[in-house]
Amino acid sequence: LRLWDLESGECLRVLEGHEEWVRGAVLTHDGKVLSWSEDNTLRLWDIESGKCLRVFEGHEQPVRDVTLMPGFVFSLGDDWTIRLWNLGSGECLHVAHLASEGSSPLVYSLSENRLVCGTQNGQMIIFSPENVHFSDPMK
């Protein structure tokens, strides 16, 4: 993973640690970089030093996508789980197991510290740092 100066085109830093290709990266609310990878992990990086501050492990397949809220991150894995993590401690606070057939998440909506996820099979999951609610799939 590389950090670039967009004006000069110069590579400022190489963030080394992921063992497979990186699927994506975002800036956190406090100015760090969060990356996710084919190696089944997320990593939190300090931009100034280039040091990996934390490795989030738990997915059994590559991490597909993430959504941030202040202090927390939701990760979607190819293992059909959505995980809620504490960014500060790295602790996995909750794991939601999706039914594998036809449940690929389609829609994320982040509002008022809640993440709503709708799936192809009609399941709706509402996440917040305090609780998780699953609806029955629509018939």
Number of helices: 0
Whole-number radius of gyration? 16 Å
Helix content: under 10%
**Global geometry:** globular
Strand order of the largest sheet: 3-4-5-6
Structural class: mainly beta
Q: What's the β-strand tally?
A: 14
Estimate the strand proportion: over 45%
How does the major sheet shape up? 4 strands, antiparallel
CA-to-CA gap between the ends?
44 Å
Low-confidence stretches: 134-139
Mean pLDDT reading: 83
Elements, N to C (H/E): EEEEEEEEEEEEEE
Description:
By secondary structure, this protein is an all-beta fold. The protein has strands at 2-4, 11-14, 22-27, 33-37, 41-45, 52-57, 63-69, 72-77, 81-86, 92-97, 105-111, 114-119, 124-127, 132-134. The strands form four sheets. A four-stranded antiparallel β-sheet has the order 3-4-5-6, with no helix packed on it. Residues 134-139 have low confidence and may be disordered.
Per-chain topology:
Elements: E1 2-4, E2 11-14, E3 22-27, E4 33-37, E5 41-45, E6 52-57, E7 63-69, E8 72-77, E9 81-86, E10 92-97, E11 105-111, E12 114-119, E13 124-127, E14 132-134
Antiparallel strand pairs: 1-2, 3-4, 4-5, 5-6, 7-8, 8-9, 9-10, 11-12, 12-13, 13-14
In short:
0% of the residues lie in helices and 53% in strands. By secondary structure, it is an all-beta fold. It is globular, with a radius of gyration of 16 Å.
Q: Which short descriptors sum up this protein?
A:
single chain, 139 residues, mainly beta, four-stranded antiparallel beta sheet, 14 strands, globular
